[in-house]
Amino acid sequence: MVDKVVIVTGGGGALGKAIAAAMAAEGASVVVNDLGVSLKGEGGSSTVADMVAAEITSAGGRAIGDATSITTFDNAQQIVQRAVDTFGRVDAVVNSAGILRDAIFHKMEEAEFDAVMKVHLYGAWNMSRAAAPHFRQQGSGAFVHMTSAAGLIGSIGQANYAAAKMGIVGLSRSIAMEMQRFGVRSNCIAPHAFGRMIESVPGLSPEQQEAYMAKRRATTRADQVAPLAVFLCSDGAKDISGQIFGARGNEVYLYSQPRPIRVLQRGDGWTSQSLASTLPGAWRSSLTPLERTRDVFPWDAV
């Protein structure tokens, strides 16, 4: 990552901060973008991004703080231009910014859905689109987007968050395919790291919540995800694009992507009645159950 310039959105949070610090430690110049808002996206302070940048600088790295919102395209262009004006170019964007507005679906308000979409999905699109012309002109570049098991597998009370995170998967895949000829890569990471995005876990007593959090702090640290983000932005991953990775504790894994797994054909076509009499029995064992993340990852992280 020596001499590369990286923008990390959400760079003041646990995960974003760890990624920004890891990028700088590998020799990259970093734009730490963070509004300094609460988990719900409320408030805001430019000091959060500036403090992370100052820590990086004190450790011998190169970084600047930026508190511009990523929820509009004009703002995203300003962030990218600031990277270019300050460091001379931009080589990678890590879309890590996020908020939560958890609510059961039938009680979720439009504003709760919209706010999460604006930060996660629109934010990722805005930043990626703003950087794309620079990547195209120089014939290189890397995007890393944070998705989530909430979208890939499922989560209760997070329809807005899950929808945004699955949208990011489609966005990343399209970027990877369309910008391949310009030497630009795009990948996703679904992190299992302790941070703000997991501090809102419904259904647990205070005692259970604290025990859960203590375990997560010890076994799923943000600094264990950061190396994967650095790798995907580096030249070492020059042939890897359009993929979905996961990181949990000392584990790194690759997610499958939707492909047809079973086919039913009927020469005279299908009716709803013939489907009802054939499909459930034929495909019952192949249907994806309504699992949660804890069902898919039943073992402890180490």
TrEMBL record:
SMART domains on file: PKS_KR
InterPro entries from the UniProt entry: KR_dom, NAD(P)-bd_dom_sf, Peroxisomal_Beta-Oxidation, Sc_DH/Rdtase_CS, SDR_fam
Domain of life, source organism: Bacteria
The Ketoreductase domain, residue ranges: 4-200
PROSITE patterns: ADH_SHORT (PS00061)
Protein name according to UniProt: SDR family oxidoreductase
